[in-house]
Amino acid sequence: MTESTPQLDVHVQRLRLGETVVLQDVHLRCEAGSHTAILGPNGAGKTSLLRVLVGLLPYEGETRLKGQDLHRMPHTERARHIAYVPQKSLLQSSLSVHDVVMQGRYAHQSASGRISRADEAAVLDALEMTDMTALAARPYPQLSGGEQRRVLLARALATEAEVIALDEPTAGLDIAHQIALFRRLQLLRDNGRTILTVLHDLRDAERWCERALVLAAGRVRHDGAAALPEGLLADVYGVRALPNAAMDYDLLDGGAIVGTGDEA
């Protein structure tokens, strides 16, 4: 039987930043409708792997999307296929939340930059998905850190890309919005999107992702189930799991987020 072509196939033979080899022989294959957690200790190369994927770092190797060389695509075409939510944003513009999210539609717009009904609909959907509709007119710099994270997620969702790469997306979010975020990613995965998420919380990885890629010192140490084996925890993180120490949460009222969306 012929093996099917994966939705996403990333092979980083080597990535150097200055004199340091940050990634070495990292191979990641993802199918459509999958959610992969990218795990590992600080400095393992997790963020660098996502930045390679979206074309922000030069490297030795190749990235293919449905068999096509992703980095031979024009920038705007690649942006229609892959959306990126960075760990931090340098955005300081006084643009409104709505206008920041509209930036996610630039790859779909004509040369004139005219906003279509489809663009507006995608932005409104993304704002609703991230519980930011009520803050759509507010200037982006006036938001809390957690609210800004949700705007960046909304911008990525507005692209309607097939692949969504997120770097620590729960940082700065309260627990209700963390759960809501993972629920949204779960729906996107179930609708055929390919999700890659850099995480530090191993419980989130096990609960929400069916697979994990674990990096340490720039190399793959595990590619498989999101529930990591005890030996790997000790070897990579220097920790052990405590028996009967699981702590989990869910939303009240059928999944509705309590509150107005404003955060301190």
Instruction: State the CATH class.
Output: Alpha Beta
CATH superfamily: P-loop containing nucleotide triphosphate hydrolases
Work out the helicity level. Answer: 25-40%
Q: What is the count of DSSP helices, taking H or I runs of 4+ residues?
A: 8
Please summarize the sheet with the most strands. 6 strands, mixed
Indicate the topology.
Layout: E1 8-17, E2 20-30, E3 34-39, H1 46-53, E4 60-65, E5 68-69, H2 75-81, E6 82-85, H3 97-102, H4 117-129, H5 145-158, E7 163-167, H6 175-190, E8 194-198, H7 202-208, E9 211-216, E10 219-224, H8 230-237
Parallel strand pairs: 3-8, 3-9, 6-7, 7-8
Antiparallel strand pairs: 1-2, 1-4, 4-5, 9-10
Key descriptive features of the protein:
about 260 residues, alpha/beta, Rossmann fold, six-stranded mixed sheet, four-stranded antiparallel sheet, 8 helices, 10 strands, about 30% helix
